[in-house]
Amino acid sequence: MQSLVIVAHGSHLNPDSATPTHTHADTIRKTGAFDEVRTGFWKEEPSLREVLRTARGDDIYVVPLFISEGYFTERVIPRELRLEGWDPDLWDSEGISADTATLVASDIDKEVHYCGPVGTHEAMTDVLIRRAESVTGDPSVGDGFGFAVVGHGTERNEKSAKAIEYHTERVRETGRFDEVKALYMDEEPEVDDVTEHFDSEDIIVVPLFIADGFHTQEDIPEDMGLTDDYRTGYDVPAEVDGHRIWYGGAVGTEELTADVILERAADAGADIGDAIERVRQQTKPTTLVAGD
């Protein structure tokens, strides 16, 4: 019996923080790839400390719905799950290549396959591109468009910046977009000046965040000049300094993120059949008229 446990941050203040986690869990449940799919949170219920007690599987796969390796994935989650003998060196990673470590969770006396975060998996590049398709309503979008991947900034989290640069380079290597650049909230090049960093008239902007919150719903739209007050909303695309800005919000809310969770579990040895292909098909965006 296989159990999948998706662990995330959650929030006592933002009721939407856990929404992507529950949405992706539901998507994966529908595939039938796992006998059960559980969710656990640092700041919400069910808590990280309790979630493994609800898992009934003989093979338990834990996938962190986080963007980067760091404090939560390397310290908080293993501690709360009581993973005996955990050490970040078991991932043999320099910041973007964490894979899997199999350890005993002392609380339930079972082995747990502890996976790297979804945000550093190579499949997250596909989610970023899918986000570009979703926000423009064009499954072939690319020619004539610039693409900005947005992160917090290197001073806040060096490993987070590694994830930003990693996926920016992977999107660039596809050759699909005219320009692909990494922008930051707290460091140069800043997302505030997005139009100064691109020659393309159309610019897609996607924050590499798991859930929409203060930064993605308030700070970034106002900083880019999409609106003077986020509460009044903004157009997609929005006209800024002679450019059209297609703002996609947090990439982790894209339905295809469920695929990355499955990829992580499969890399750790989970038998998921054709679930990845089915999720990719089921989550394809509906073609829209630009501006709808």
UniProtKB/TrEMBL annotation:
One Pfam assignment: CbiX
Example GO molecular function: metal ion binding
Keywords: Cobalamin biosynthesis, Cobalt, Lyase, Metal-binding
InterPro entries cross-referenced by the UniProt entry: CbiX-like, Sirohydro_Cobaltochel/CbiX
Gene3D superfamilies: 3.40.50.1400
One of the GO BP terms on file: cobalamin biosynthetic process
UniProt name for this protein: Sirohydrochlorin cobaltochelatase
